[in-house]
Recover the amino acids of this structure.
């Protein structure tokens, strides 16, 4: 019994980690770049965008998964878009209710969550083929991966471009902000840098695995 | 012939149109319910947030105010108090009258807009009827370059332009002196704005926004200053 339990827990953990790590939407699949480059001028904006996307992704994955046997395949894309658009509208109202300043900062990119290909991709490739529990876990993992990615961009851009993190000054008044980092080109610079880090890390891991395989063969 | 065979083979797999319409209709109805619920659930909080945002912006430019009343200055010269959720008629300009704790008028705030470097710069500026000056302004929305165009609310020399003279002509139909933004370091009169070096276009937008709005709004308000003086 306990073996079965632990096996399913591992599976769930695996399902969750797929989005966070192996299939990270931003750094591995390079999806959702439009919000990733546009709203990550500060850590708080990036994190809010990550949470908003997480809400839409998780809710629509749940609904798509619940209705998966009911949706005829001919109209599935239309259905997914309607469901995603619904939750985007909901999150739009929620953000307005929480903070208008945040709503202004995120601007049109809240409504644009509807065209985030990551969400439609998850609905089509995962939620429509899996039971609700697994679909939600996978969606949560993807959301976490996306939010981590956005935060990684936003934090670096805010630290370099404004000398602050979450609005708290880090370097004192002597710091000359590297303004280009909070401008659109800065988004590309920082994203490129992170992709480089991930690629280097991936290669390092590959080499280590090859070395280990070599070692076992010799043994 | 083979075409006909294909048809008979694919037909059983096709979903009947009725089922598609039923599913789409059902899902659309479900989504409609979710959206209405979200709208109703957040309506009060959103309205409250908007009111607080307006109040905060007005209190920032009219610091002596403790309460505000919203008015429309109509095109025919009449004033009208703004009811909850009311939208402006054509030609009407919204402004905010700020009152101190004793209910005396301390300042008027209104929005102005002008083309900046990246996009329209929208500002909220204050006007003091007693001194006929613009004591200051705040930014409502701006997409100006961070670090350059956003200096308009940070640069000490630029903020030293305020209070800015905005005196009405004797006949009350226009400003006595048009508010103008001049090149950095060449301000000679109290109605001129000394531009920020390197952010001239944004500085100019501030001057133009205040001037354009004041030229229309202040002549409309002037005949009513006596009634505005006390909080209604």
């Amino acid at each position: 019994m306990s073996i079965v339990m632990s096996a399913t827990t591992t599976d769930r953990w695996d399902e969750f980690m797929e989005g966070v790590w192996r299939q990270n939407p931003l750094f591995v699949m390079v999806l959702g770049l439009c919000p990733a480059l546009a709203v990550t001028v500060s850590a708080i904006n990036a994190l809010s965008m990550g949470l908003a996307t997480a809400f839409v992704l998780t809710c629509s994955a749940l609904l798509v998964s619940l209705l998966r046997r009911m949706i005829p395949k001919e109209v599935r894309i239309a259905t997914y878009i309607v469901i995603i658009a619904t939750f985007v509208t909901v999150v739009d109202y929620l953000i307005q209710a929480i903070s208008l300043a945040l709503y202004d900062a995120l601007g049109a990119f809240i409504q644009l969550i509807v065209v985030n290909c990551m969400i439609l991709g998850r609905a089509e490739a995962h939620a429509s083929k899996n039971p609700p529990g697994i679909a939600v876990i996978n969606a949560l993992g993807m959301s976490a991966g996306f939010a981590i990615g956005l935060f990684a961009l936003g934090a670096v851009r805010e630290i370099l471009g404004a000398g602050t993190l979450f609005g708290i000054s880090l370097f004192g008044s002597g710091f000359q902000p590297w303004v280009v980092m909070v401008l659109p080109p800065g988004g590309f610079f920082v994203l490129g840098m992170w992709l480089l880090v991930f690629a280097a890390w991936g290669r390092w891991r590959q080499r280590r695995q090859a070395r280990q395989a070599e070692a076992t063969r010799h043994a | 012939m083979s075409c006909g065979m294909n048809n008979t083979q694919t037909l059983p797999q096709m979903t009947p149109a009725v089922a598609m319409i039923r599913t789409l209709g059902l899902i659309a109805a479900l989504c409609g319910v979710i959206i209405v619920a979200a709208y109703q659930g957040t309506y009060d909080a959103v309205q409250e947030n908007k009111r607080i945002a307006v109040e905060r912006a007005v209190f920032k430019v009219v610091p002596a105010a403790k309460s505000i009343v919203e008015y429309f200055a109509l095109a025919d010269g009449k004033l009208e108090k703004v009811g909850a959720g009311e939208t402006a008629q054509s030609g009407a300009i919204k402004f905010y009258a700020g009152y101190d704790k004793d209910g005396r008028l301390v300042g008027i705030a209104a929005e102005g807009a002008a083309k900046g470097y990246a996009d329209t710069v929208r500002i909220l500026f204050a006007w003091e009827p007693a001194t006929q000056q613009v004591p200051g302004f705040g930014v409502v929305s701006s997409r100006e370059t961070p670090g350059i165009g956003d200096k308009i609310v940070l640069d000490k020399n630029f903020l030293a332009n305020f209070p800015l003279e905005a005196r009405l002509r004797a006949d009350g139909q226009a400003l006595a002196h048009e508010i103008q933004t001049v090149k950095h370091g060449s301000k000679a009169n109290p109605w001129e704005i000394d531009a920020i070096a390197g952010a001239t276009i944004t500085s100019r937008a501030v001057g133009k926004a205040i001037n354009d709005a004041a030229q229309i709004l202040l002549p409309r308000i002037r005949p009513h200053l006596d009634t505005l003086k006390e909080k209604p």
Remarks:
- The radius of gyration of chain B is 27 Å.
- Residues 17-61 of chain B form the longest helix (45 residues).
- The first strand of chain B starts at residue 67 and ends at 73.
